[in-house]
Predict the 3D structure of the following.
Amino acid sequence: MSKQAVFWIRDDFRIKNNPALSYATNNHECVSAIYIYNNLKFDQKREAQKWWVSKSLTEFGKELQKYNINLEIFNSDEINFFSKIKKEKDLSVYWNKIYEPEELDIDKKIISFFEKEKINFKFFKGNVLNEFNKVNKNDGTPFKVYSPFWRNAERVYLEQVPEKNSIIKKLKKSKNFFNGSINSDKILPKNKWYKKFENYWIPSETQAETNLNQFIKNEIGNYGVDRDFPSKKGTSKLSPFIRNGQISVQNIFEKCSNIKQKNISIKKYINEIGWREFSHSLINNFPQMLKGNLRKEFDRFPWVKNSKFLKAWKRGMTGYPIVDAGMRELYETGWMHNRIRMVVGSFLVKHLRINWQEGEKHFRNCLLDFNAANNVAQWQWVAGCGADAAPYFRIFNPILQGEKFDKDGEYVKKWVPELSKVPKKFIHKPWEMEEKYQEAIKTIIGKDYPMPLVKHEIARQEALAAFQSLKKN
Ligand SMILES: Cc1cc2nc3c(=O)[nH]c(=O)nc-3n(C[C@H](O)[C@H](O)[C@H](O)COP(=O)(O)OP(=O)(O)OC[C@H]3O[C@@H](n4cnc5c(N)ncnc54)[C@H](O)[C@@H]3O)c2cc1C
């Protein structure tokens, strides 16, 4: 075997539980970690993630140095980059998989090139509990319903022979293998809007581990209830770390399973990791859903094209406080609470009847935790056109959702400060305040904050009629 190896960083910015990195360091004298920044992928509206990746590279680079591993960053597409590796360089290449059809396609092309050129390589399981093709129904077909999927997936995972704990070895000397490495700052988006993220996130493996430990110590016990209230710290906020592999889902699963005081909340939390597994299984077994509706009858849905409404939704100016708070939280922090993602999603596809793909695109651009599997599967879940989806006719009432999950309006007031003087009674329907009252508190609806774009009851009736029209065709 060659003395030198390349660890190809994909979505796995971590030292712990990183099989490809561990294999490389335990079998070679000298290892370089390379990251290939393919701007074609990021320029397709993944601006927020450019920030996360850039910062992650800086942090991860420092960690790798402790093991005498240099980090080299290249602006290229993956196939182009690897096609220049020559056998004479005597390098072996290792990586962990990403479970997206496009990425698996890239792997295939690279593998075929390496085989042809007789370059040594090996790839490893990525950041999932199970390979998606390991969990199928008895007849060998993939699951389309979450509960039986997860029952099986959990069993398959627990029955697996435990993987050897992959420990990374410190090497004697470091070395760069290639020319033309760029600085991680080059990846940052041009628009400095990302600066705000620095107030909320530290994209590192250490931070991920700290957050998980704190969540297990303080919050997981009440997760089953608190996770629905956006003003509480009720969820783990680990999603951007999981997405970029700063923490592995195996690590999360093991730590949660080892909690001594078992309670239903812990199970509920692990079930969410199950939803992530389900989404990955769906997009790989039904890759057509990355481009359109899984349920084909929705191809005939009479979506409305309304750029004014779409813009108002994106900017958090719909006139429905709970929706606007969510959209502003997203823009400010690169993250949004799950309950509110469902509310804003439902509002876009049902009240405004705008195609879910517009929402998916906006989330892709703004979410630090965007991943194709979760985003597409969840948007289709909200729209009713996906697997095991919420039925289209179940339409969230944004006023009631607000009153139920943000009773005191704490969340709304945090993100929509122009409503800070509105009393509790009206915080989710400020247009119902008497004019005199609006004047007294200097909050004029229609001037300081918009009137609702649509009336809930009318929008609901129109959405139901549109849905009915699918059945007639
Ligand atoms: C319209 C819409 C779009 C979404 N897009 C994404 C996305 O691009 N990326 C993403 O990671 N999640 C997405 N989600 C799922 C969910 O909202 C986030 O995973 C969650 O809010 C992240 O916060 P958390 O880490 O505090 O979650 P926790 O409640 O602490 O859950 C722990 C982990 O479980 C996983 N998880 C939780 N809920 C879900 C879910 N419903 N489906 C799949 N996995 C889940 C995540 O990896 C999460 O980090 C979307 C949901 C909706 C309704």
Q: What stands out?
A: The chain has 20 helices and five strands.
